[in-house]
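I am going through a labmate's work and have reached the protein record below. What it holds is a sequence and that sequence's fold in token form. Please read both lines and tell me whether the tokens look consistent with the sequence. Do not assume that whoever made the record got everything right. Thanks in advance; the entry in question is below.
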Amino acid sequence: MAITDQIPTQSGFHTKSTGMEVTEGMDLSGKTAIVTGGYSGLGLETVRALLARGATVIVPVRSPEKAFQSMSGLRGDISTLPMDLGDLASVQRFVETVSVELNTLDLLINNAGIMACPEARVGPGWESQFGINHMGHFALTQGLMGLLEKAHAPRVVALSSTAHKMSDILWDDIHYERTSYDKWQAYGQAKTANALFANALSRRLKRSGGLAFSVHPGGIFTPLQRHLPKDEMIALGWLGEDGEISERAKGLFKTPQQGCSTTLWAATSAALEGKPGVYCEDCDIARPTDPDSPYARYLGVDAHACEDEAAERLWALSEKMLADA
């Protein structure tokens, strides 16, 4: 796919549609889903909607105590298994356990992530945002490919962000080994990586009738903001001087129930058949960024996140990073 494939389907949903609305009337009984980060924020609401439609859901958890507390009110066929995306051995143990328990996997939702955090290293020294948001999910997906390929028309959804506009892949220094660390640039690079990952993965799922998509869920207050100081969120206009959500943010931001809707639409909508690897927002395929729009920073997808050549280059690099880890 390419930027020219970014053509909305006129889905009938909108920026404030909820996950329950986009899945209304669906019967997902017999379908099995894995949702990373499924015990917090958007992930929790994604899990809630999937369970309500009859799906079996497995949630990898890094913090069992936190997961137990947040998921105690959920009803349905749900289970948890330990996993830390920043620990490749942990990811491998999760894959091995799931591969014994399941015959097929219908939905993989790579939802977990970190944002704009202080510089840190994971795995064999990877920059943490790229390492967790992209490489952890890359390793997980690679490990689960056998289960996905055995399913009928499986789907994989990667959570990207409008922050992809902040940075292309830093091909010459992905892990900030020679250049000064910039937390927002690093986050932007990771979100571009998520979009390119879905692009490349769709080609690898084609034989089994599978599809992969990337999604921008919208602006939402969730634990994703945990690394941002209050003063920075005030400067960004997200909070007022009193520390409360600003009126501007109230108009632009979504609730977690609304924020999970594009993920669920990408995971289930028939309108996406034959449209592999596209980037979605507001429960539809996103348009290419309009540089003349006053909303160019927030809406649409930039060309660098849609290029097949870049997607294949990143896939090859990611395979090498994983092999060398």
Observations:
- The chain has one domain: 3-219+254-324.
- Strands lie at 32-35, 56-61, 78-82, 107-110, 121-122, 126-127, 155-159, 211-216, 279-281, 284-285.
- The longest helix spans residues 128-150.
- The chain has a mean pLDDT of 92.
